[in-house]
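Record pair follows.
FIRST:
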Amino acid sequence: MIAVFLSPYAFRGEPAPYLWVFYKFLASIEEPICFMLSADYLAAPGSPAMDGRAELDPARAAALGYAAPSAEVLARHHFALMDSGLMQQLLPRYGGNPLAFFKAYLSEEIPELMQELRDNLATLPPDIEAIATWSNCPSLATVAAEQGIPVVYMEVGPLRNPQYRSTGYLDFSGVNGNTEAEARNAKADDFPEIAATIDDLRRGFALQQLERAPKGDMLGVVLQVEDDSNLLCYNNGYDNIGLITRAMIEECEERLLIRAHPGSRFDLKPSKAARDLSPSVAAFLGECRKVLSINSSVGLEAILFDVPVDVFGEASYRYVAEESDPIQRVRKLSFYLFAYLVPFDLMFSSSYIRFRLGKPTESQIVARHLEGYGVSAAEELSLQGCSHASSTGTLGAISENIDGAVAEPVAYNLQAEQACLKLYYRDADGYYQEEFSRSEVAIRVDGFSQCIRFTLPAGLKPEFVRFDLGTDEGTYELAEMRWGWKQSADDDTLFPLFDLSNRLVAFDGIRMNADDKVKLLSASGHPFFELSVGDLWASDHAAGEGAGVVELRFIHHSSQFETLLEALRQGERLARVESDETSERLREAMKVLDSVNESSAIQRQLMERLLDAMSSMSHKLGEGNELIGTMERDLSSLVDFLRNRPTLWSKIKGGGK
């Protein structure tokens, strides 16, 4: 059973400070849970205690996805009531200052609170799996650790509707401060490589067209709510005044553009500094050459708009902001967006909390998050990339990862395996042999993009290279290739190749249509690409002493995966056919289903849905259409993949388009 602890104290003068979080859990959780909170949270919506509460505003409730609970809803759950008056008893210890008590609550162990937590935990069922809470609380962490119960810290994320896909924080170390974001990123060996730009990432998460105006010349200063935990505890000594003063040391006051927080109780005094009145953060960032922030989410948006930002607090994204290498910055930002941030509604799910308690790999977390953003997330991200072309073309790299990531998350059983990949090299009149090769070991997950880099022997400039991809059947797509001439240990400059199709001189398998990419269907178990590269070394980039570097990004799909895609194609055809064609289409779809291995949960589910749909269509075509439509929505990323690429079935069986 999962427990939820919500602070019983009126830190800012209002009881039940996390009332909307309580309502959101009640509206979202799939089972009875245990709440530890004050009686203030249980006041009836129409009672005097609830007069004027913003949480009861219908628009706010609709935006956050909750409703005020009925007595029947409350009766499903277990409650351990805590004393909201404890804060008043302890205030003299903190000079009578509620915010000083709040700071202690967030950063210190409070003995009286710890004892009350022990007493309340003793009244709960003995099978508590985890305690979810809003904001940090060392007292809770210590008491939970005594009993071996993990604490799950949660908060609203930095990207929110309506501008962005709504996100949240779910962290086992803390939120706002003491987070695990950087540590997880450092250990994320299985996080898939994503060849994308910062613009691609922004457009992928944006729900509105957010294009930045040409960079302005102002120094942006982002203020925060004065009684927020970000300023009370995780500010590294900075407050709003300190941040403005720091900005005035760096830039003359006339060149400052100060953006006040809309939730602040104070107004800015007129001064030489400009006050930002922009209608959006994007417009504000368009005026700035650089931004100063303590912990504000505007700092993350600055990164997404490629505006330099100095972060002075303990913001979870600070490790991204401080990365100076462009490639690593994109990689860290990708991890932060896809693996660390959580789809907002998903984090209130007991099944998701249990999923995270199971310590999944980062790739599995990414797959679950992609599903949480909606089954059409991959299609939307791909369309975003196509409609706003950048220097890299589209969001292809991301959508390829998403195509693969969403393929298996219904079963949450992504299988990773080690693969030995080799790069052979030869001159025009030479031949390939083991002594003229380089090897790399990669962790491969079916459907995920893999990026492999090989360094050639010093001074060697081969005419041809051959990339051996392992021993598995299926399709192999060479999505991107880059090359460089490494002249020092820290030289990581690589140049993209845009003519892979023209460079392909030999391969194993059936060449498939994949636009400017190279895609092969291999049934031999020995797939390879051979490419002409001799002209690269004549470039000025390869002058002088050094060693050639070849980097390739490829995607492998198993034969079963391609068969599933064909099953989806048959399902789409079933949804479109007239009734007199149903029998023929049923037979075609059954042939596909016969070739699907039933060992995978997602394959079994797909078979069951197709069979249900076909059975219904034989009696009532309309009902079959509805079922196929449901299947298509659930697996729309695969459908998108199918619409644009030939499949195993069509190549082997010669099926129609």
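SECOND:
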Amino acid sequence: VEQHFSAVPAEPPAELKATNAAANGFFPFAERLARRVDVVPVREMRRVEILYPAPPVPGWRESHVYRLFSHVLGHEGSHSLHAALRRKGWARSFSAGYALSIQDCIAFKVSAELTKEGEAHLDEVIDLMFRWVARARELDVATLGRIYEEEQTLNQMSFDWTERSAPEDVASGVANNLEYYPPDLVLLRPRVAAFFDEAGAKKIQAGLAPEHAVLVVTRKPSGAGAEDASAAAAEEEEKRRVFPLEIPLKQVISMLATVL
């Protein structure tokens, strides 16, 4: 290990530090946000992902504030975007939650696995996903607090009635969680939050703005040959654009009403 990796610098390059400097709220890699990235997979795949990288909310492992927004955006209720996309036959699955967690950045992600019909309505799916996120940004503290309390009740019941697990699985989970929680809370706290973080919720809502997003579209190009793939990639490159900064809540509700 020393022979092969001793030359790797222990600190990030100065230019990367400057890019990630804690200024104006510090959004990591700000110059790479508000853009679309098109990925051509090796195997057949149809996926739309919207990532929102931002500095982590202090105490998020205790408050589970990201889990709160995972439920708000990813739940499968009859009036959810997940249900609407499934009813139209546009998506096989829909999810929301943090996809990356490092020391100075957490990337919250909203993702949909599309059907062929969904790929044919790709722009509509993307539009609905951004509008669904915009709706979450508009939720007031009272509504978020009520959702938090409901989640807490369910999580506490689930913890109280936990079924027995294999000892090796419990030991592995405890060993991992001891990095983040004290021994007396290592079983409870990963599953039941300690408090409702109003300030953290507002911070996450601010970070879910379109100008902080990276849209990733993964799908096969329409042509089978290299020339077709190249042309499709060039066409997709032309579609890269900066997203609108604000979407009014009334417009969100009106748009969702057409599919819910």
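COMMENT: The radius of gyration is 21 Å.
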